[in-house]
Design brief:
By secondary structure, this protein is mainly beta.
Length: 81
């Protein structure tokens, strides 16, 4: 499969898993992609991105951070600094 595994949404917060680590942010508007779906368009940079799945759903994600490891993802998802 191509793409990145989509994680979320949890209170509009989402993540995608890349080989380098997790890309994290929040959905701008409706988040119509389901947990575990593979998405395309994920970039290792902050700012606004459009992620899409194989069903044609597109979400706008405001990326806050990238290259997080599993512990960093847990901290980010719970708001721990």
């Amino acid at each position: 499969m191509s793409g990145s595994r989509f994680i979320g949404p949890f209170d509009n917060r989402v993540a995608a898993e890349l080989p380098q680590g997790f890309v994290v942010g929040y959905c701008k508007g409706d988040c119509k992609i389901e947990q575990g779906t593979f998405v395309d368009g994920v970039l290792r940079r902050t700012g606004e991105q459009e992620w899409s799945d194989s069903h044609g759903h597109v979400v706008t994600v405001i990326v806050e951070d990238f290259d997080l490891n599993a512990q960093g993802l847990r901290n980010w998802s719970t708001g721990v600094e």
